[in-house]
Amino acid sequence: MAKTFAGARLRRLREERGISQIELARQLGISPSYLNQIEHDSRPLTVAVLIRITETFGVDTAYFAPHDTPQLVADLREALPARTSLPELTELATKLPEVAAAVIDLFRRYRQADDQLAEVVGDRELIAGHSPHDQVTDFFYRRQNYIPDLDEAAEALAGGIGVRRGETWIALRDRLAERHDIRIVREDTDALAGELHRYRPGTRTLHLSTSLRPGQQAIRMGAQIALLECADVIDEIIEEEKFEDVQTKILTRVGLANYFAAALILPYGRFLEAAENTRYDIELLTDHFAMGWESICHRLSTLQRPKARGVPFSFVRVDRAGNMSKRQSATGFPFSRSGGTCPLWNVYEAFSAPGRVTVQVADMPEGQRYLWIARTVTRHHGGYRQPGKVFAIGLGCETRHAGRLVYSTGRDLQAADGATPIGPGCKTCARMSCPQRAAAPIGRSLDLDENRSTFIPYPLRD
Description:
Blueprint: H1 7-16, H2 21-28, H3 32-39, H4 47-57, H5 69-79, H6 86-95, H7 97-120, H8 132-142, H9 148-161, H10 168-180, E1 183-187, E2 197-200, E3 205-209, H11 214-229, H12 231-241, H13 246-265, H14 268-277, H15 282-289, H16 293-300, E4 304-305, E5 308-309, E6 314-318, E7 324-329, H17 346-349, E8 358-363, E9 369-379, E10 389-398, E11 420-421
Parallel strand pairs: 1-3, 8-11
Antiparallel strand pairs: 2-3, 4-5, 6-7, 6-10, 8-9, 9-10
């Protein structure tokens, strides 16, 4: 079991409450010198002391968990590319995560100002990371993809209206009709001018395309219920973020409504129990709840209710070109923000075997190991010759949780040669000798010589 060092967070928590070291040591039943060593990371937190601390301050044990360190390190590598070493960045992210977050925030503000200046002078090439979609992604990432107020409200409503397996569509239809006098109208997509759904307040009708599968129709209905019954809660959450852009606010509202819909159709307690009983077998869960692979995977990445946590997953959706259209995480997987991800990741391998589940033990440069499950999903619109959409869906967790998953059966998760070395993305990856590197790392000089060639595509100076 990894040792927990959380001295800076404990010291800050103690100072915020105005408690002296001597007084806190007395409450915890330890010596002041022992507490001083803990606060300076000379000694780790033991389980017994950690429990007493959480009881004393009324916080969850997750407060002291270093779950976001890998992502902080990856973001710091972009903000401070050539000024600090990897061990120094790791120490900053581990011991002073708030300072690390402040540095990253300043860097993003600088990037945003640079972006705005580019627009003023006529350069329309936007810098990645500041579009409305990216801001919404960051919003869910900061909250570890768990929104307690909406999740609990959805679960309570599911129990109240009798959402049951095989009868979800009926329960949601009746709720819309009886509570809001809204009727469902199913139409061809052509009749909806290419739209998949549209709510018309004037006629109180919710139009759903016939191309939507039952699970997709249920999501649209659940989202409409969220916008009608949880508008105040959603508005409060958005207000806390202080978004300045109208489009970002709209996208966040849509994201929160869809989150509520998934929590309504797949109520937390019932879904977590089914996940644990099936050892997180996604295929069995899709059959049991009559929902698609992507919906089940996304819901699995939200199970972070205190005292009833599921496996902390990271969720990602990519296309063949490597574009990442969704990324959410209840753990600290270091997604790249500088464009591009690792070509050795099994999420891309999934495209070579459509519909088949691929499993990979991935070894990150900083030493963390993850178990990744990936599979393609296909969406069709219209008939023959009409273009469809193909994505690869990835779901990953740290290997310390992998024993709870059916996908770990028969795998040696700790074998030295049993993992694939991958990275967050070529521009921030520390694997300097990787032959698959597609870009030079940020802040490093190339060792170029017209009289020689190398197998490594971007040889670097020492």
